[in-house]
Amino acid sequence: MESLLTCRTPQPDAKAGVQFAIQRKANPDRLSVEGWLDNELRKVKATSLLRVPMTIGGKPAVRIQMGDTEEVVTRLNATDMLNIFYPEWQSKSDPTYAAILSTLKARKPIT
């Protein structure tokens, strides 16, 4: 997996910043975002999570929350996936994160 970690603190830590991860060829079956996410969650035996469908750059995406981290997942192309991770508390208290998230367009949640 290729990733880029950007943080506002001098030393990155898992509880601060936002991470953009590109997973090359992670979706060889060319599944939809929802189908790919289903497979990934099944692999780690995750319980059902609240999903909020969104769009990023006009492409379908899904936002999920796991513990105190939120994640947005979308396809870059047929086989490459983009994951955006950020602390849920930070997105609610920091205007920078609010601005980033406001550019994502939410659709009706999938239950």
Key features?
globular; 7-stranded antiparallel beta sheet; 37% strand; single chain; 111 residues
Task: Give a description of the structure.
- The chain has 111 residues and is of the alpha+beta class.
- The chain has one domain (2-106): Mog1/PsbP, alpha/beta/alpha sandwich (Protein Transport Mog1p, Chain A).
- It contains three helices and seven strands.
- A hairpin with a 5-residue loop joins strand 5 (69-75) and strand 6 (81-87).
Task: Produce a short descriptive summary.
This protein has helices spanning 33-43, 88-93, 95-102; strands at residues 2-6, 18-23, 51-56, 59-66, 69-75, 81-87, 105-106. It is α+β, with helices and mostly antiparallel strands.
- Count of folded domains: 1
> What is the terminal separation in angstroms?
29 Å
How many β-strand stretches?
7
Radius of gyration: 14 Å
Mean pLDDT: 76
SSE order, one letter for each helix or strand: EEHEEEEHHE
What is the CATH topology?
Answer: Protein Transport Mog1p, Chain A
| General form | globular
SS field, number of helical segments: 3
Query: Numbering strands along the chain, what is their spatial order in the largest sheet?
Result: 1-2-6-5-4-3-7
Beta strand %: 35-45%
CATH class membership: Alpha Beta
Uncertain ranges: none
Structural classification: alpha+beta
Write out the CATH superfamily name: Mog1/PsbP, alpha/beta/alpha sandwich
Portion of residues in helices?
10-25%
